[in-house]
Amino acid sequence: MNELRAAYVKLCTGMDVQYFVTLASNQDGTIASIRKRARDFCARMDRKLLGPSWSKKSAEERTDGVFFIEHVASNIHLHGLLRFPSGAEEGLRMTSALIWNKICPSGTIDFQSIYDLPRGVTYCMKELLLPGYSDEQFFLLRELMSERAHQTI
């Protein structure tokens, strides 16, 4: 398990992420349902930040990062380490809160700049050592993007 933790830390610290985002549903759900909400959240953020042709942009131009899913049995939520499109810093907190509220009206969002990435990654992995942890509780945003996003222009 220590090797897995080390691999997650290495992967995440090698990414150009700037924000720690917690998306809570404040209700029960499944891994599939919370992944769909994360996908919807990032797609709507990209639509707002990049315009109507957002889905035609490359993965490097779009919101990118990783999510860790916690509390699968009750009050499922996500911790994300994210990078938003370049030049989109102004108003991100408000925009993300409005979008998450539309996707999950009962939910809450915590949006913070990252000052200590290794510590943030460690926090995101706190359920990794618990019995019942599944590798489905971690995913890259790029897994949710279409094939087109991975093509270079």
| H/E topology pattern | HEHEEHEHE
CATH class: Alpha Beta
Radius of gyration: 15 Å
Overall mean confidence score, pLDDT? 87
- The residue fraction in helices comes out at 25-40%
Number of strands: 5
Q: What is the tally of helical segments?
A: 4
- Cα separation of the termini: 39 Å
Proportion of residues in β-strands: 15-25%
How would the global form be characterised?
globular
Q: Could you say which structural class the secondary elements and strand pairing correspond to?
A: alpha+beta
Q: What low-confidence regions span 5 or more consecutive residues with pLDDT below 50?
A: none
- The CATH architecture can be named as 2-Layer Sandwich
CATH topology: Alpha-Beta Plaits
Widest β-sheet, arrangement of strands: 4-1-3-2-5
How many strands, which pairing sense, and closed or not: the largest β-sheet?
5 strands, antiparallel
Q: Give the total of domains.
A: 1
The gist of it:
The protein contains four helices and five strands, in the order αβαββαβαβ. Strands 4-1-3-2-5 form a five-stranded antiparallel beta sheet, sandwiched between helices. By secondary structure, it is an alpha+beta fold.
Provide an overview of this structure.
Strands 4-1-3-2-5 form a five-stranded antiparallel sheet, sandwiched between helices. It is globular. It starts with a helix and ends in a 13-residue tail after the last strand. It has 153 residues and is of the alpha+beta class. It has helices at residues 2-13, 31-50, 92-103, 117-124, and strands at residues 19-24, 64-70, 77-83, 108-113, 138-140. The chain has a single domain, classed as 2-Layer Sandwich (Alpha-Beta Plaits), CATH 3.30.70.
